[in-house]
Structure formats: structure tokens, C-alpha cells
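Morning!

As promised:
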Amino acid sequence: MVEHKNNDKTFLGFWIYLMTDLIMFAVLFATFAVLRNNTFTGPSGEEIFNLPFVLAETLILLTSSFTCGLAVLAARKGDKKQLYSWLLGTLFLGFAFLFMELSEFQELIHEGYTWTKSAFLSSYFTLIGTHGLHIAVGLFWLIILLIKLSTSEINSSIIRKLTLFSLFWHFLDIVWIFIFSIVYLIA
Amino acid sequence: MEDLFGKLTLQALPHEWFTIGGAISMTAGGLGAILLLTYLKRWKWLWTEWLTSTDPKKIGVMYITVAVFMLFRGVLDAVLLWLHQVLAGGGQGYLTADHFQQISTAHGVIMVFFVAMGLLFGLMNIIVPLQIGARDLAFPFLNSLGFWLYVAGAILINIFFVFGGEFAATGWLAIAPLSGLEFSPGVGVDYWIWSLQISGLGTLIGGINFIVTILKMRAPGMTLMRMPLFVWTTLCSMILVVSVFPILTMTIILLNLDRLLGMHFFTTGFGGNPMMYTNLIWMWGHPEVYILILPAFGIYSEIVATFSGKRLFGYTTAVVAVVAVTLLSTLVWLHHFFTMGADANVNAFFGIMTMIIAIPTGAQIFNWIATMYKGKIRLTTPMLWFLGFVATFTFGGMAGVMLAIPPIDYQVHNSLFLVAHFHTMAIGGALFGLFAGISYWFPKVFGFKLNEKLGQYAFWCWLVGFFTSFVPLYILGFMGVTRRLDTYDPSTGWQFLFLISLLGAGIIALGIGFQLLQIAVSILKRKENQNTTGDPWDGRTLEWSTSSPPPSYSFAVIPTVDDRDAFWTMKQAGKPISKPIFVDIHAPKNTASGIYISAFALIIGFSLVWHIFWLTVLGFLGVIITVIVRTFNDDTEYTISASEIAKNEEKRGIYG
């Protein structure tokens, strides 16, 4: 009973935190919308985005969200082996996504299109970079979870932590869908 | 060597009279405190009883203590400015233009972020759990962390006195492009950025914590519409915190990216948009005003009901008014820059919204006046602060409605008229409320009342001093004096009004003197004003039902609520309280993790100000490791046994 109540508080608190994070992203989306056409002498989005590449990124992140959901289901069933494999799958896909994002950044920088070039590029790098930073934090969190899992059985504490992580991961997924539509598709 | 300390070179160390003076006085003060603690052998006591405590009552007292220290700094800054403006009429004044602007910026930032917010979070920590019949906040560790982040921010804003550099000379909101690297190449704006960022993070954490506490931890029977008004206003204020502080956080991050990585969000060239900064910062900045004033409204509602011996008149309308103000406050930010040159329709919309917000605010004034009507009014110090507020706030509110009319705003924008208006709201509204709350709840926290007579002297000095110092500013504003003006021609004839204004500041200083004396005298003569019942004012809400000071667990048995003004109803029923069956209570253990994390945050902030990047990395590693260690620690609670509680409660002798 006490534990149930504590869980309630934690989940409500975490939801409110997610909403605050969403507002931070909203600020970034707003600045991006304002600065989108301020390319100054630099390139426009149309010229630098590689849509098929980003589509692949998107599919990878969506799949990782799916495997994350399956991991929570496995945890509820108490199937530790399945839980491990789904979590490792999520970890792998997450790293793949992060790697692709970074290589996209590297390519732009290599071509001389850095964030100092124009307001548009500043807002682009910041929006995508903030999302990438969140992904990196999520992956770090996931590694800690896996370490914890290796030392204990599946108990209510593990399920709670896992559920919080999955909320965070799905949240990043939703933000990415907005990024995909507003940043890439509109360009 | 140069790389090792980034931009922090020997030349940057304190070398001006005010930084050297500050460095000496702060070091001396710090050494004095260390020596005193060592001499009295109080280190362990301080660490275990206070600093590492997760008890919201103690965290609240610590918040208020830090805020009072910051108030001294803020008032000192104000006096320096006032004096300079008087002297500037006959010549140059005694401050350089740049130094004048720095003090002005520091004064605003300190008063809003570290005084008003600190006092507010202090009172909320102490009172909100007691009023809803809870023993603690939802997340005790996060509460401690939030407090220590606030302390880290407060240290960072003062640290340049000791380690060198300067403070921002940009005005309290560091409006772009002035705050960009191009026009403010020094470290001042970076100090501003990181002290606000760190303390703002603490505020955000606190906001989440209070919302969850109020929504999930109320005593059985306390429905939303039975909550005391202070709880309602805290809830609304914290909802605003979680809605707008993320905007502040992100805006400051973007400004920092401009300065640190050469991005172009708010720069004048490369397609940056400085007006976007003004928009974003006021989207946070205007709701921030209501974050401060709403809880003050709550405090007044508690006080006026208690000292009129009546229920608050029109509880439901008061709640509706508070919620309406909360919603409307997010729709008025543009009235801070009508002169930006937006479309007339845009200005009209925001002007009308601003005027509309005066309606629910005015409704609350009538709530309070009607509560007093036919009540048995006791003119105690808290009640005097309340009455002073009604007069001052109505006066300032009228000026606010004037400013909300765009054509008038074009005349008085950025003038002392505006400065006088928002000081009327901040001092007469928020600060009077916080003083009222402190004198009202002081006996709850310490078990004895504050000296009445000295409290009343302090009040009258503040009230008279306030009008003497700020009415001339309204007039000067009409005469065309702009804000942050560091020099003017004597032939303008402004000097006399500035002089009267300074005189008012002297009267306020006298009031502060009385407040200090009041605290000292009250502590020395605490036996005379002692209160053992826990209910010194014949109160109405649950916080008065427990002993003063409350035990660490606050309530031996969680009360059951069946009406508004729960404690009053219990007293009216007059039933002898039967001795309850006590059970074990689980309470959170002390933790120092919040202190460590905040210390590392301070290191991160300081190193980013000076571009000492290896130290930044160490700071981040420190935060990450402390957080991980904390999450692996499942042993965070201890048990207070039923027999211990029974023994404690027997002493009160309230059980029939």
C-alpha cells in the first residue's frame, strides 16, 4: 500500500518533469521556426538534409521504442532472459541512432557548415543536439539499469525504474517525430 | 599556466575598492563564522541537525536565513544606487557608469531570485506540509537538493568579490544583444547566466515537488476545495514555475551558446534575432511576477481570516480568482515591450489582457475587505502588514493599469514611473506578504512570538519610508527620468526629488533596524512570549493543531479533515481529544548528497564562467557519480518508534 502510494508520487513527479522538458523543446522548436529562413550566407535546410538517411534514423529510433515497450512487458511477466535481450536491443538501436546523428553532424562540420555560420544552423544544431544529448543520457541510464538488473531479481523497484525509463524513451521518440516533421520534412 | 586557469588571470583578481572591500569583508565574515563554530564546538550539530536535514521545516528556516543575508546585500546595493543618483545631480556621483549598471543589475537579480524566491520557498517548506496534514514533501531528497542548488546560485552571484571579474552591467534580465559577446565581452554576463541557471534548476525541482505533495499527500478528507488558500496559491504558483522556468532555462542556455560557442540566436549579425530574446525572457518574466505575488495573496487570506475571527469571505471566488490570475498571467508578457513596434492590434490584445487581469486581483481585495467586515479584528503585526499591503497594492495596481494602456506606455516606458510601479508591487505586494507570513508563523516554528511593539515600529517605518522613497520616483518618471540613469544635468531640477527618495530609503533602513532588534529582543526575552499550546493566534488551519515547534514527524497522528478551516471546526466541536493509538513513523534519513551535487554544480558554473574546461569535466563527473551512488542507496529511511512518539506527545498534555 505504502509502496503503491510512493509509486504514484514518483510517476506523477516524473510526468511533470517530462512536461517541463517538453516546454524546453518547445522553446527550441519556436526558435527554429523563427530562424529557419535566416540562413545569412550559409546553406538552407533543403541543401544539406539527406532525407533517406534521416528516415533510416527515424525508423531505428521507432524500433528502439518498440523493443523498449517489449522489455517492459517481459519484466511484468518476470522473464529475465527476454528482458535482457529486449533491453540490449534497445541499447544497440539507441547507439546506432546516436552514431548516425553524430556522423550527420560531422559531415556538416566537415563541409564547413558549422553552427557559427548562420542563425539557421545555430538553431538546427541546438535542437538536434539537445535531442541527441537526451538520447545519450537515456543510453547511460539504460546501462546503469542493466548493471542493476545483473545484481538483483526482477522486483517492484526494478519494474518501477524500468517503467520510468521507458516513459523517458517514448517521450524522446515523440519529440523526434516532431523534429522529423518540422525540421526535415518541411525543408 | 594560462590554459590551466582559462580566462582567470592575475589581472582579473579583485583590484577595485568595492571588490577588495567585498573580498575582505566576506573572507573576514567567513573566517569569523568558522572560528565561532569551532569555538562553540557546533560543527557536528550544524551538519547533522541542519545542513543535511531533509525535514522541510528545517530546510524552510535555512531558506529564509540565506534569503535574509541576500536581502542585506540587495538593500546595500539599493542604497549605493540611491546615494549615487542624489550626488550625480551636482556632478559625476561617486560610481563609474559601468559600476553603477553592475550594482543595478545585481540589485534586481538578488532581490527577485535570491530574496523573494528564497523567503517564498522557505515559508512554503515550513507551512504547506503542515497545512495539508502531511509529514513531509513528496521527495525529501529533491527538496534538500533544490535548496542547495539555490545556495550554490547565491554563492556564485557573490563569488566575484573574492575570485575576481565583474558582474553583468546589462540590467536584471540581460536583454540581448547587449548581453551578447559583442557588447559584453567580460565575464559579468556569464556569472549572471550560471547563477540563475543553477538556482533556477533548484526552483524547478522545488516546483515539481510541491505540486506532487499538494496533489498526492493531503490528509484524508481534505478535498481540493477544503484546502487553505495558502496551499491553493502555492499550487498555482508552482504550476506557473513548472510552466515557465523551463523557458528561462532554455533561453539562458541559448544566450550561453551564443557567448560560448559563437552561435547566432540573439546576435545582431548572421541572421540572429535579438527581439526573440526579449519575447522569450518575458514569457518567463511576467509569470514570475505572479509566482511571487500569488503565495503572498495566500498568506494574506490566512492572516485576515485568523485576525478577523471569521471564515474567509467568498472562498470559492477567491480560488477562482487565483486560478484565473494563473491562466491570464501567461498571456500578458508582451506588455513589457509595447514599444517594440508590434502591430497595433497585437498591442491592443496584450493591453486588454493586462487590464483584465486586474479584475480577479481586485476581486480578491474585496474578499479580504468583506472578511474584515463585522469581524473581531485584532491589530497584530501580521494584520498591519496586511492592511499596509491593501493600500500600497491598490495604489501600485492603478499605476499598472495605466501602464497597460499602450499609448500611455509609450510615454513612460523604461522610466522611473515603471520602476516605481513594480517596486510598489514587489515591496508592497510580495515583500509585505512575506514579512506578514514570517511574523504570523514565527511562533509556530520557534515556540515563541516576536515582540509586538518593535514589529509595529518596523511596519510603520517601512510603510512611511516606502511612500517617501517611491512617490518621488513616480513623479520623476513623469518628468522623463529613465531607469538606470547614472548621470543628469543639475538644471533639470530632479535632485531635490532624488533627495527625498533617499530620505525614504533612510526610513526603510530604520525599519530594517527595528526588525533586527525585534528578532534579537524576542530571542532574549523568549520566556515572556512563549507559547506552549501550539496555537498562539487562535488559528483556523491545521498547522496550529500540532505543537510549536512541531516535532520532526509534525503530526503524531495524521488528522482527518471534514471542513474548511479544519482546526477551527475541531476546536468548535470542543470534544476532548481522546488519546490516539500511536504507530511507528517512517521518516527520511539525512543526506549530504544534495550538498555534494550542488558543490559540483557550483564548480561547473564557476569553471564555465572562466572557461576552465578541465574543471567543468571534473564537476560533471562529480555530479554523475554522486547521483549514481545515491540511486544505488536503498536505505534512505529510518523509523521513529510508537513509544517514542507517545512519550513525546504525553508532554503536551492535550489528551483528555
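Chain B touches chain A through 40 residues (CB under 8 Å).

Hope this helps with the figure draft.
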